[in-house]
Design goal:
757 residues, Beta-galactosidase, Chain A, domain 5, 25% strand, Maltose phosphorylase, domain 3, alpha+beta, 32% helix, homodimer
Chain lengths: 757, 757
């Protein structure tokens, strides 16, 4: 654990600069607007250890992969989010000396990421070597969520002492590379550069996989007071302007840089320059203050719908808002071609843009904190990629649709066979999200139309992927990897078998409610339906009578079973200390596996079953996936294990802020950021939707005085407040409704209060 | 199946040149002398599709590997046999035109690889475009097995028509690359080149894995009659001489090229040039005829010990000798730092030099066809690498010694985790070879000394690799891959469990017979021995009572079992037509798995058990490993299934000559070349050593009139002749002895004959 920033309910801030943790600082001060984003790099440049990263949503490259020995059915490429044009650069020289915090003398350093407003600011007082000159620099940066193509960067320099000649050199620089490139390739090639207005147009290099080449134009307009334009230069993939002037003591110079970024995802290459010019000019005309005010206002609206307040624990408060902020900066549903990448705009580790994490961990939260359209777009994304899911299954010689583990287009682009064609439970996460969306919103329209295409496609996959074991007289699934990736190529993983059967049943049920025309279009035959029903009725589930638990997979109980508590502290985390061989053969579980089914299918297990399985598996779980603790916290809460729930919650709430896994320098764990929210809302507050009704069973963690969150539910904005006195539900917007509170049905018209139980 | 060469008992020859199969021709006409070897490339060069390959035993490079996602315990590099200096080049120009069979007109083409003498010859009559000139070229090439560093290449040009100016340009060319290089790197760097005598010295490039850089010097002396030296040139990694002259009709010019190759494996770089000069001068002094005669004589001695005659089936005869020739060209035991590479000197597919194939398939044959020292050196090789086997196990966090799947040094250098730390049955192949050597030779000295180091090291590995399942009350081994690589990461593979227990037992037994000093040196504790005994006594073996068969692994019977005969022909071979996912989940078996144990431990299974397991597994076996058919043929023969045995034999005998697997263009299947010999000797003739006695149960395949082979057994050379009359055993050298013939003990002093049963 390492904490770089101060505790503050709304801000990530610090007054100390720690060069040894520069990359971590950069990750934690990343900003994004769903269209683009960047790490917290320094505008003036930095000669020490740093990871410069700017990323454009949906702009990627299929990097040639390498596997031990390629075999039929392996993916051809490993898709990468690629490092894009650096647009924040404003080089600074004072009397010819280049300002560089890695080398220079400075004081009063302050860095702040304001989660409430989405603004990143930084300041410091710089001192020349001879101490004759002192300048206070203030940097302000934001990416507009109103004008998504616009980045605004402002640099103020106030001379406190001396009369220096100051040069500011704003630039656009696409000479960037990916640290994780497989062949140290540059993924960009030059198209053109312009002097006035300064712009750079680049294109991703050719590839052999039929993936489009992306063309991107960055264009900047600079508004400068106190300095004169002294030069412009363009180079291969770069464009710069230089503003210079002698500045008197007490005077302040200001540079405001308006950068427009357009990509061929939205704008034809031929029109990009004109479009970018128009955008930048419009932004410059609005001016810094108006652009800022609009952005702050837009963020305020988001927080009104989504904020969670924790009274009496600012650490938890900060952690929770940091997670919501990270998610909203990554994705807010404006573009159904996009999804929630594992690192968002904060780093480039992990290929691809889309994992099953979205459906399993993000959807349940977005349903409650944003408009239904946001989640609907996430579902639509999968429907758009259905054809390619059929291609993935076909590559394995299987019928139906297999959604990818990692993808941009729907085509699998991860590179481990034990994951790509084995960790197929992901298919069920996608159908379960349809179930979740429908259950929460009451909107059946997706399920019975586009959703049904997805349901039938995945059902056809499951029906072909199972095999009938004459020996056992059951349908089985061999060669799978469950959510617990610390085992792979196992047989009859309970979770995969259970969710496959559930998906088939949900599909059959959905078919009943669909229009004949739709059913006809899908041409599901009676034979198919019979096969699906046969699989549902005769699916094999490993179960141990004696223990009364579902067995993770066929031979799990033969392992040398022991709790994590028997391990030496030095063994943990296993993935850093043990060989893969030892991990695979050990009984230790990376993340919820059997318990993932129990979380997904909450109604279908008795409390006693949940208790037995939780008590059996959780002690063997190392929670080395950031996705693990929240699911366990929610089940623990349901079981009334309040302390356990809070303990597990603590592992997700500040995962990145406190760098628990010692890997946040690579970027933030975006897709697990919903974990803390889920722990509080589905766990502590026990929120759940059943029988068309919102239900709550709240408790208050001892450490807290109160917590308060808002949820959007079927046209209403509901505030849930829990404190020592009890729980208070308030409908802030929308009509009154019945809810289930501690299993009792109550009507809320305005506000109701109830003591905790 | 494709057959390029004529049927001939001793020769691989053809009178037709088939450019479309150039690579296949090159593989099939490779030559080698255990020290170096090369594919059947053309001396004058060839501008069409070709794979030029020259290889030096033990000279390799650790190529950077790439895996999907590196994890602890994965190998760092993928060791490659690297393409070395091309020493056969003799460029030819006639009146300024470069002779090139890819473009020119020629007739009377003839190519012959004489397996009896080890000589490769080629001739053709070349015609100029204007038809005014005709020249007959004759090429003779051999690698001396007497002077191992020497290659001799002779080119004769007889002018049949015209009076052309002929230039011959012998050269040394190290501007070569590996087609399988992971990063298209050149593995060689320049050291120096000399004009007279023409030589090139090169060094393998640096690597980051602490592997030595090899320095190699090639030096040539040319003896030319009828042409004058007209020039010499050296370039980066190259050296050439040119001999030119006008030649009258009827005249013949002759160039004899003596090339000495020395490497830093034997000679310090500083001394290489002097050493190479001395070697080449000595060879040149001997002259072509003497060098040739010595080489032919040495091959004759090898054949006297090892030849197998098949009367009435020249195809089988040729196939069998081709296999012996390929093996002897690759390895004849002179250097215990070397082993039998999977492609020998015939190609560069597959990394590494040493596989478990050597112990499992080569050792049993070398024991009978060569002096005991040859096999002993193969055992010594593993002892030399024992320390690194401990390193391999340590990398997995395990005790003891884990021999590598693929290696040069003993360090694992393959790149698939499912093989490297899972296909551990290889450890037992190595201990079983000690058992085989001891049983066959009666020489206990290796087993109780160096061999015991290996036995104890592997025993310590097995004892740590198993785990005790409280649930089952048995020792188990999870996460293994058996010989059947069409499944991996399985639990309780019968073969692995069985051979592990056998190895432990053999080690305990050996410890009893060893000197106290040796035992003390190994410091095997009582606790260790008790643990080993406990594992032997309580090892879990999957067995099905109903079927009466050992189960390949825990869940094999749950598969959708079906025989290969149920497949559509278009599905085969599976590895070219099915996805890896489908193959892994299918019941189809690549090569003997349960049956491999039955082959290894012939005495420990009843005939009924063998029959039940053979009848259960063989029908599901696709034999897509070249190692598969021979083991099945031997067991079929033991079961009296003569037709089945012959059918399986046919799949190994001419695997390369008839290009059965359509991959011989990449090189020959060296390590499976013993398969045909094993099928005849251990299969058809039923040769086996038990109770210190040679035993035979021969039968004669219907298609044959007779077969005859020689074996070396405890100081004797025994000829075994089987024909329609019966079997005749003759002791050609050495003392008389008792043998078991059809279960009857008989004494052979000179010759005995017996009817077949």
């Amino acid at each position: 654990m390492k904490r770089l920033f101060d505790i503050d309910p709304w801000k990530v801030k610090t007054s100390t600069f720690q060069p040894e943790d520069k990359r971590l600082q950069e990750s934690l001060t990343s900003i994004g607007n769903g269209y683009m984003g960047m790490r917290g790099n320094f505008e003036e440049g930095y000669s020490g250890d740093t990871h410069e990263g700017t990323y454009l949503a949906g702009v990627w490259y299929p990097d040639k992969t390498r596997v031990g020995w390629w075999k039929n059915g392996y993916p051809d490429y490993f898709g990468k989010v690629i490092n894009a044009m650096n647009i924040i650069q404003v080089g600074i020289t004072v009397d010819g000396h280049q300002v560089d915090l890695a080398k220079d003398t400075f004081r009063d350093f302050y860095l702040e990421s304001d989660m409430k407003t989405g603004v990143l600011t930084r300041r410091f007082v710089w001192t020349s070597e001879d101490k004759a000159t002192e300048i206070q620099f203030v940097f302000t940066r934001f990416l507009s969520i109103v004008d998504k193509e616009m980045a605004v960067i402002q640099v103020k320099a106030e001379v406190l002492k001396g009369q220096p000649e100051i040069s500011l050199k704003p630039g656009l620089d696409n000479q960037v590379h990916n640290e994780d490139a497989n062949y140290e390739e540059m993924f960009w090639e030059q198209v053109s550069e312009n002097v006035a207005p300064a712009s750079v147009t680049v294109r991703t290099i050719k590839n052999n996989f039929g993936i489009e080449q992306f063309t991107v134009t960055g264009l900047m307009l600079n508004d400068v007071t106190g300095l004169e334009l002294s030069g412009s230069e363009v180079a291969n993939l770069q464009a710069f302007e230089t503003y210079t002037g002698r500045v008197s003591e007490g005077d302040t110079v200001v540079l405001t840089k308006y950068v427009a970024m357009v990509t061929s995802r939205d704008v034809e290459p031929a029109e990009q320059e004109a479009k970018a010019t128009a955008l930048a000019e419009a932004a410059k005309a609005k001016g810094f203050e108006k652009m800022l005010a609009e952005n702050v206002g837009a963020w305020e609206v988001r927080w009104q719908k989504a904020d969670v307040k924790i009274v009496g624990d600012d650490e938890a408060q900060q952690g929770l808002r940091f997670n919501l902020y990270g998610l909203f900066s990554t994705y807010y549903g404006e573009d159904d071609r996009l999804n929630v990448g594992p690192k968002g705009f904060t780093g480039e580790k992990y290929g691809g843009a889309t994992y099953w994490d979205t459906e399993a961990f993000i959807v349940p939260m977005y349903l409650a904190v944003a408009d239904p359209e946001v989640t609907r777009n996430l579902l639509q994304y999968r429907h758009n990629q259905l054809d390619n899911a059929y291609v993935n299954a076909g590559k394995q010689g299987l019928a139906g649709a297999l959604y990818p583990m990692v993808t941009f287009t729907g085509i699998e682009c991860h590179n481990e066979w034990e994951i790509t064609f084995m960790e197929i439970h992901r298919n069920a996460a996608i159908t379960h999200a349809i179930y979740n969306y429908t259950k929460y919103t009451g909107d059946e329209s997706y399920r019975v139309n586009d959703g049904l295409d997805v349901l039938v496609g995945t059902a056809r996959f499951w029906a072909d992927r199972v095999h009938y074991s004459k020996h056992a007289g059951k349908y089985m699934m061999h060669g799978v990897t469950g959510p617990n990736e610390y085992e792979n190529n196992v047989n009859n993983n309970f979770h995969t078998n259970r969710m496959a059967a559930w998906s088939l049943a949900y599909t059959l049920e959905t078919l009943k409610g669909a229009d004949d025309s739709k059913v006809k279009e899908l041409a599901v035959t009676e034979e198919e339906k019979e096969k699906w029903q046969a699989v549902i009725d005769n699916m094999y589930y490993p179960y141990d009578e004696e223990l009364g638990v579902y067995v993770q997979h066929d031979t799990f109980l033969d392992k040398d079973l022991m709790p994590v508590s028997d391990l030496d502290a030095s063994d943990l985390p296993l993935n850093q200390n043990w060989s893969w061989d030892k991990i695979l053969r050990s009984p230790f579980i990376k993340q919820a596996d059997v318990l993932q089914s129990i979380y997904y299918l909450r109604d279908q297990f008795t409390l006693e079953e949940k208790e037995r399985n939780f008590d059996f598996y959780e002690p063997m779980t190392v929670h080395e996936s950031s996705l693990s603790p929240s699911i366990h916290a929610i089940i623990a809460a349901e079981l009334g294990r309040e302390e356990k729930a809070v303990e597990l919650y603590a592992r997700t709430a500040r995962l990145d802020l406190d760098n628990y896994n010692n890997d946040t320098e690579d970027g933030l764990h975006i897709t697990s950021m919903s974990g803390a929210w889920l722990s509080i809302v589905e766990g502590f507050a026990g929120m759940y939707v059943t029988d068309e009704m919102l239900t709550f069973k709240p408790f208050l963690p001892k450490q807290w005085e109160a917590y308060d969150f808002k949820i959007n539910y079927r046209g209403r904005l509901v505030d849930v407040h829990v404190d020592k006195e009890g729980v208070r539900l308030t409908i802030e917007e929308g009509e009154s409704m019945e809810v289930k509170l501690f299993d009792e049905i109550v009507m809320i018209s305005d506000t109701i209060t109830k003591a905790l139980q």
